[in-house]
Request: fold
Amino acid sequence: MVDFALSKHEQELYETAMEFTHKYITPHARELEEANEFPLEIAQKAKEAGLMYLHLPKDIGGQGYTLLEETLIAEAIGYGDAGIATTLLANNLAFTPILLGATQEQLEKYMKPLVTDPKVKMGAFCLTERQAGSDAAAITTTAEKDGDEWIINGRKCFSTNGHVAAILSVFTTTDPSGGYKTMTCHMVPSDTPGVKIGIIENKMGQGASFQCSIEFTDVRVPADCLLGKIGDGFKIAMQTLDKTRAAIAAIGVGVAQRAVHEAAKFANHRRQFGQKISKFQGISFMLADMEARTMAARWATRYAAWLADQGIRNSKESSLAKVLATEAAMQNTTDCVQIMGGYGYLREYPAEQMMRGAKLLTIYEGTNEIQRVVASGLILKEAKEIDTGFRLKYDGKDAPDPWS
Ligand code: CAA
Reply:
């Protein structure tokens, strides 16, 4: 049976997150953006409200939420501000490789103290390097085994929350010429000697989210910091992104929905030529298109998350949900600015901040071009098994294969 309704628990979770957004995020989004301030207090409040460590198991202090539940929270927080949502959700990106690769013993030792600390603790995902962004398998940060320890050397960049993180999930290679098969993943406590935070990036939008470079110079970690086996790194990274791209899509849905609401409220109020501008079809049709994009993106996102919750690989669906939702966010915020005209362009109103924030959603956690690479690769593979029913007639008979 197909059921599109949220369960009572899911609905309550969404409403709790929305209340949190109205109380702590929306009123502060502008000031944090302008001040370029890290929203630590909001993260602390989110922890106290049960809106952090969403997918970590309950026995180590997490919430034990499904990915679908996580997307509901991401949507509500994204409605308030994409930058703050990025800060809060980046923990899930950092912790998913640990969840995928760690044993229960490793989780108890490294994650439980962090998650159960009364002060909110962050993690950071360290995959990207200057010459290895879309081409994640080209990383050169090395991990070398030395007795009971690993020695890590290299430099990562664009690491969200890296400057405050307590633990880093670091992707390395045991042989830089070996490609993705030698990629490995380690947990690195950030106070390990040799870990140095580099520059914090200065961005066009999402001022309340922070990305930095991190240097690793002869960083020694115990053998049990290895996640999974040597060579598991690439698959851990891809499986992580399959999940987290659905959460980024959900932030996009929240931004797209907020843009519809801000634009519609303005159109209901603003009068020109003796009537509300909502009476002009040029405006009302734009609003309908904005809502249509948001609806499509929301259901694609929830479906991608639901598949992962069923244990079904969702690479194509989560990539396409990210494309649909983040492009809906970009288009809707652009349209919102346009509907609001000169007011849309002013810093007193939220539309321009939303528009700048939306742009980053189409770039991080895999550019939308990479999402299309992932999806089209799988579409082409699936096509080999598909019979479309078309038969080419050749001399009155079916040709064996019309495409050969
Ligand atoms: N699940 C399981 N296995 C997977 C997989 C998945 N989702 N995706 C790929 N694999 C496996 C393949 O099956 C293959 O394994 P086998 O050889 O055993 O068959 C292996 O991994 C290699 O796969 P590909 O040949 O497809 O790899 P590729 O190198 O051609 O392409 C890519 C991969 C899709 C381009 C990938 O590199 C990618 O997603 N790049 C983007 C990385 C990215 O998103 N970076 C942003 C990180 S977030 C960040 O830095 C912070 C921030 O944004 C702020």
Notes: The pocket of acetoacetyl-coenzyme A is lined by residues 125, 127-128, 134-137, 158, 160, 180, 211, 234-235, 238-239, 241-242, 315, 364-366, 370, 373-374 (CB under 6 Å).
